[in-house]
Amino acid sequence: MNILEVRSLKKYFPVKRGLFYKTVDFVKAVDGVSFSLEKGKTVGIVGESGSGKTTLARLVVKLIEADSGEIMLEEKGISGLTETQFRRLRNKIQIVFQDPFGSLDPRFTVEGIIKEGMSLSGGKRTVKNMRRRVTELLSMVGLTGDFLGRFPHELSGGQRQRISIARALAAEPEIIVLDEPVSSLDLSVQAQVINLLLDLQQKLNLSYVFIAHDLRVIRHVSDEVCVMYKGKVMERAASFDIFENPLHPYTRLLLSSVPILGSQREKLLSRGETKAKAEAKAKAEEKLCRFLPRCPDKEKICEEVEPKLKEISPGHFAACVRIK
After folding, report:
1. What is the pTM of this model?
2. Residue 213 phi/psi, 5° resolution?
3. Which residues, in sequence order, are CB contacts of 309 under 8 Å at separation 6+?
4. DSSP assignment of 249-272, as one string?
5. Max CA pair span of the chain
6. What does the alpha-carbon distance between residue 215 and residue 11 come to, in Å, rounded to a whole number?
7. Model pLDDT for residues 256-287, shown as the tens digit of each residue
8. Angle value at C-alpha 23, between 18 and 28, nearest 5 degrees
9. Which phi and psi angles does 47 have, rounded to 5°?
10. What H or E segment, with its residue span, contains residue 64?
């Protein structure tokens, strides 16, 4: 059963210039993105900076509104709901941000921060029961009750992210959107936080939308992977298929850039254009493949036909006219 479905989601941001601040263009941050998430599973969203991953995360949890498309949460459409209408469902889907320091209120203690998350789950609790629940949540993320009275500036980066996770869990969610949750942490701390998230998923039967640019992290945590580039999904498949049988040139480019000790793997980007050069051509070819200017495998047909995300093999989708 799909607990979350995203269908043809779009979000364009206007580019304004000139004396009268007129709209001269649009940045297509998310352009027709679709994916689904099963209960207890993880869908990974991967792509380089500027691919639209964070905008997608904010759309899914309704921190910003989509221009078009549909979001189904437990088979209920939430796209058109007002903030007041969505408030009753907000506890079901929570988000953990990349920067834990920026997302934690510096005026609140750890106890106050987690209690704030508990307010979304509803129900009345006594002061004693709330303190007990906060302590339980701290224990779940590997911290002790000694942290209750501390402020965010007194914590390390890893500890802040654990508090962010505890705050999300306090709402008793079914889905957690994780927007680059470990990218700002040291490697050793990254591993600890990832293992914590996997343990929590198993114990609480949580569903994750895990957003990252690090393919090694995505491979470790994801059941299904969506590869995004400039607002579009280039390829979508089970994690194993993405890493063992990548079809789209952009996916292969990303995989070729992952450092492997002693590897002589070819850098595919050397056969295409650099990102800087590609950006200069992007507008002219926007109605075609977004990756066309950088693609090392482009052919004449790529300049004539717009690719659609199509199923190449069971459960494996790719947006490339060359792939049959």
Report:
1. 0.89
2. -105, -10
3. 34, 233, 236, 317, 318, 319
4. HHHHHHHHTS--TT-----GGGGS
5. 70
6. 25
7. 877 654 444 445 544 555 555 555 555 545 56
8. 130
9. 165, 165
10. none
